[in-house]
Design brief:
Number of strands: 17
Protein name: Nitrogen regulation protein NR(I)
CATH architecture of the largest domain: 3-Layer(aba) Sandwich
Bound molecules: adenosine-5'-triphosphate
Keywords: ATP-binding, DNA-binding, Nucleotide-binding, Phosphoprotein, Transcription, Transcription regulation
Strand content: 5-15%
Structural class: alpha/beta
Distance between the termini: 54 Å
Number of domains: 4
InterPro entries: AAA+_ATPase (IPR003593), AAA_lid_NorR (IPR058031), CheY-like_superfamily (IPR011006), P-loop_NTPase (IPR027417), Sig_transdc_resp-reg_receiver (IPR001789), Sigma_54_int (IPR002078), Sigma_54_int_dom_CS (IPR025944)
GO molecular function, one term: DNA binding
Helix content: 40-55%
Organism: Reinekea blandensis MED297
CATH superfamily of the largest domain: P-loop containing nucleotide triphosphate hydrolases
CATH topology of the largest domain: Rossmann fold
Length: about 475
């Protein structure tokens, strides 16, 4: 069932732990110090459980000595800080002494299972031939797609292979990438290629749910647990039973909800708001963020233990500006997709000039921005041929290509924008952004996010997206709580 090395200098604790593990079917080897432990081949164990403070070298020295085997650190309550430091050094987890027997067995089981799953996944990832057939490639071999993800540049091909390899292993995945790069599509592709594909995929944008409601939305609530809770309700975690839960913008999850989510990951249990009972759940979590979670951990805004649980496998989506000619491949795909949806029969197509501008443009809003630009252009381009001004791109973000500088005025972006009122539009957009910025900064301390969004006449998600774009983060908890409670 598992081969465990215990490293502990206090013989009473060591033999008690040995008995406990053996009763649960594990094979145990003992050592009193790092030196004694190192006489074994450390990578032959499935797990090493070590005290932090030992005579001689500290238990954390085993982390580097045993490169392949997870190390679980035991520490007293008084030295929790060093336990967190041990996690930073690469310990798989820590457990406080004196430990509860059930807690210890649960942790051991989880760490060994996670490690075996991870090794299986990494073996698949390093096998270049496996699963590549699932990537759709056209006859010429230069267009590729996975699920709804389109694009054939090298970073996307690598991404497809990685997505296919992590799909079958039942491990947590953390998807990172700027807003609009396709994180949700990537999560869908993982679900579709996993054994859970016939069960639900529940997608939740943590930034779009008001802070005061997020716990009950995710974890459910019992009748009467708060004003307005007139009946018991299942949360989205339970709704994803046997399937996958995709939590987008996980960096926005409030601290209390982070604690409940940790329980789901650690114990496979969910406790509804207002309930004393926990319910078992079987859910695979895929999380996504455009933020640097490590930085949020440092700032005390994201739980370190949750961060470690989430990043079992990390996948990064490249920004659109780093995908070369893929921008045109995706644009053409979007032109036909939206022409069909809008029932256009004008043979909509991108002009050569629009294509050149699109390749040079920076796409700060990534594929979402591209999709909006194409939809706008399809409606404005009445002859069917799409020119750059139909796309409505912000001038600052694209340079005029040399080849265009000498072409006809109609194909010259600068001339067009100056003459057709686009610069007036940009002006208007700027002053709207000014207004938005002033309004938010002035009222955010005494209004909740929902109130702010209502006053501005936009959705909470849109408010959140603009905050990201303009660099006005949500105020710290105290202020927003006061507002939410009003
Ligand atoms: N490679 C791609 N091919 C085709 N369409 C794409 C691709 N990537 C993204 N899209 C489209 O772009 C839009 C944004 O994608 P998605 O919602 O998956 O991004 P995201 O990274 O989750 O964004 P956010 O972080 O803002 O929620 C969607 O309409 C999606 O269908």
């Amino acid at each position: 069932m598992g081969n465990i090395l215990i490293v502990e200098d206090e013989s009473i604790i060591r033999s008690a732990l040995k008995r406990l593990l053996e009763r649960n079917g594990y094979k145990v080897t003992e050592a009193e110090s790092v030196t004694e432990a190192s006489q074994n081949d450390l990578n032959n164990f499935d797990l090493i459980i070590s005290d932090l403070r030992l005579p001689g070298a500290p238990g954390t020295d085993l982390i580097t000595a045993a490169s392949e085997t997870p190390v679980l650190i035991m520490t007293s309550y008084a030295s929790m800080r060093s336990a967190v430091d041990a996690m930073k050094m690469g310990a798989v987890d820590y457990i406080a002494k004196p430990f509860d027997h059930e807690d210890m067995i649960r942790t051991v089981r989880r760490v060994i299972d996670d490690h075996q799953n991870r090794s299986k996944t990494e073996a698949q990832i390093s096998n270049p031939d496996a699963l590549a057939d699932d990537i759709y490639t056209d006859e010429s071999g230069d267009r590729a797609a996975l699920g709804d993800l389109v694009g054939s540049c090298q970073p996307m091909q690598t991404l497809y292979r990685r997505l296919l390899r992590v799909s079958p292993a039942d491990v947590t995945v953390l998807i990172q990438g700027e807003s609009g790069t396709g994180k949700e599509l990537a999560a869908r592709a993982i679900h579709q290629h996993s054994p859970r594909r016939d069960n639900p995929l529940i997608c939740v944008n943590c930034a779009a749910i008001p802070e005061s409601l997020i716990e009950s939305e995710l974890f459910g609530h019992e009748k009467g647990s708060f004003t307005g809770a007139t009946a018991a309700r299942q949360g989205l975690v339970e709704a994803a039973e046997s399937g996958t839960l995709f939590l987008d913008e996980i960096g926005e999850l409030p601290m209390e909800a982070q604690a409940r989510l940790l329980r789901v990951l650690q114990e496979n249990e969910v406790r509804r708001v207002g309930s004393v009972h926990a319910r078992k759940v079987d859910v695979r979590l895929i999380a996504a963020t455009h933020r640097n979670l490590k930085k949020l951990v440092k700032e005390g805004r994201f739980r370190e233990d949750l961060y470690y649980r989430l990043q079992v496998i990390e996948i990064a989506l490249p920004p659109l500006r780093e995908r070369g000619k893929d921008v045109l491949e995706i644009a053409e795909h979007l032109v036909s997709k939206h022409s069909r949806r809008l029932k256009l029969d004008n043979n909509a197509r991108l002009s050569k000039e629009a294509k050149e501008v699109m390749v040079r443009y920076d796409w700060p809003g990534n594929v979402r921005e591209l999709e909006n630009a194409i939809q706008r252009a399809l409606i404005l381009a009445d002859t069917g041929e799409i020119f750059s001004e139909d796309l409505g791109l912000a001038q600052d973000d694209w340079s005029v290509p040399e080849t265009l500088a000498s072409s006809e005025p109609v194909t010259e972006p600068t001339a067009n924008n100056a003459d057709t009122g686009s610069s007036a539009e940009t002006q208007e957009e700027l002053s709207l952004e000014d207004y938005f910025q002033h309004f938010v900064v002035e009222h955010q301390d005494n209004m909740s996010e929902t109130e702010l969004a209502q006053k501005l006449g936009i959705s909470r998600k849109c408010l959140w997206e603009r905050r990201q774009r303009l660099g006005i983060p949500r105020p710290k908890k105290g202020a927003s709580n006061a507002a939410a409670a009003r």
